[in-house]
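2024-03-11 09:14:02 DEBUG pipeline.ingest accepted 1 chain
2024-03-11 09:14:02 DEBUG pipeline.ingest length=703
2024-03-11 09:14:03 DEBUG pipeline.predict start
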Amino acid sequence: MNLRLPKVSSFNRPRGLQARAVIFTSVLMALTAALSAAILIFGAQSEGERQQILIAHDLTEHLATRAGDVMAHGNTRVLEMMIQGSTQQRNVRSISIRDANNVVLAQTGGSEEDNNTLTQLAERALANRTLVSNRGSDGVVTVAAPIVRQGQIIGVALRMWENGAYKFDAFPSLTPFLLIVACLALAAIPLTAHAVRRAVAPLDALARYAEKVGAEGHAAPITMPTGDEFETLANAFNNMTGRLDASMRQIQEIAFVDPVTRLPNQDRFIREVEYFILQSKAGQATASVIVVELTRLPRLMQTLDPDAARDFLRVVADRFVTAVRTVDRVVRVRGQGERQAVPARLSASEFGVLAPDLSSAPDAARFAQHLNAALDQPFDWRGHKFTLGACCGVSLAPRDGQDADAAIRHARMAMAAAHTAPARVKVYTQSLDREAVARLTLEREMRGALERNEFRAYFQPKINLHTGRIEACEALARWIRPDRTIISPGRFIPVAEESGLIGALSDAIMREACWKAASWARAGQPIKVAVNVSALQFRNDRFADNVLRVVSHASLPPENLELEITESVIMADPERALRIIQPLREAGVRLAIDDFGCGHSSLAALTRLPFDVIKIDQQFIRALERGEPRSAEIIEIILAFARTLNMEIVAEGVERREDMEFMAARGCHWIQGFLFGAAVSAPEFAELLRRQDGEDVSAIDAA
């Protein structure tokens, strides 16, 4: 529906342009009237002065004529009487009758200064033989007229007037003009206001249109068929709003849509949950908020180049949406008008689902379980099969959160707990809050424990299969509290990784391990010690310098230190990994790939990295123990790969003699596991060495 130009109404409210136009008209008319009046007054004054001079000339000439008649009879007494009567006229200041020699015959009025003026003007008139006049600076007018008798000048008549004599009064004459101007002004002001109101009415319509666009973000096109500049301006407004609508849609898409998957992003998901919670407060409805972590997605993405990674992520997103739609149809009993589940991408490996009307915890858990099962199904991409793996955390809104942030936070909390849950699905309960508080408490205690040096290195023996002796060990972190209680690594290591304390913890264990290994070497036991490197440590560009500094301070031969770096950390950026480890390799430090076979390493990349050791992950040993098919073949492939690269092989997690014999028969170099003992303290490890050699090596533990 188009917005039409409204009819012009009566004077209802002040307008800026209207008021300014009225003021301008009023001022213009006032200036015009004042200028016209000034011109008229100036002209009238000039005309008055001219008339004054003419009248003065006429009166003085008349006086000269009368005086000539009297002087012809030689009666000066009459002259005095004559001028005495003339002084009674308005504004006459002085009258003088003089003979041809400028001698006063009769005179009345005037001061001494006036008499000098009269004398000078009489001389001029007698000399010029004509009428002369003078206007003084004070406005006094003096006229001298020669007295002529029979062609002879016999005297001179002089008359002096006060300022203003016979002056024209212009103001009475201007009164009609001023009245006319006032009437025109009274008529012009409302006419001007009305004309301006009609002229600016299109601007008023455009202003309301702009206000509507500003308030609503969009509006129907405005129609203004005026045929003038306003119509052009209206068309420009319509074009502008059209482009604005397109820009706003683009901005909203950028703000609320994931650029790769085209799914709603986290901000949009938060808005959807918030909107549902606001609606539910009136209708008592409940929805399930599900946060899904695709556990294997980060590792899969690390092995792909950027273009391939984006393509793969789109395929994953399509698979996720399909799974959500399928589960939504299967699990929920839908009624007419019910909303579908809303999928979204929350972060790199996190996706979200808002399932309206899924109001019970069992239904929500069943939805999440079916979703997990769907996402666990293998799928093909570029000729390869992949499985994603999923963990789901569920919260119920608004039961578990009165706002979107709380509901999503609780779902994430449940998702974190789902990693260890049997079905990898966890519904939020208040106990998870208590667990979170406990983790925060443990984190705070860990920080204090690091300051108090409560973390100690324990050493698990490594057996050289060629010699059957303990010739190496792996340093593992243990938390020994002041009351001598030991905190399990399974409890504090995850907290250290989540809180970022793993770097400081790893550094502390590395320092102690190097000092202990150095003391054993000085005691004649050059034991190689392996230390785990955390991802946080490895991200430090000065990692190599820090390691070499610790080795130098401990006086440990570099070849006695072995750094175990996980496969996933190396493959995150192989080129950077090479730059970091190269100085260590050149210094003599041994390098081992930990948990080999768990990730998705590029074999081509591994061949370029100067590693000395491959540690076969214990999951392959467990598979061998369970008798899983092809487990032995996989282990043999890994061993063949290591031999090809001239790398030593360590099998960890060995608990059976059969597994040790299997690995020894296939060329494995080192064995570690509970078959030979768990990690022990430094004194206990020194005792193992003493027993092995049958020597007194108690001094080994002196450092």
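2024-03-11 09:14:41 DEBUG pipeline.report The first helix runs from residue 16 to 73.
2024-03-11 09:14:41 DEBUG pipeline.predict end
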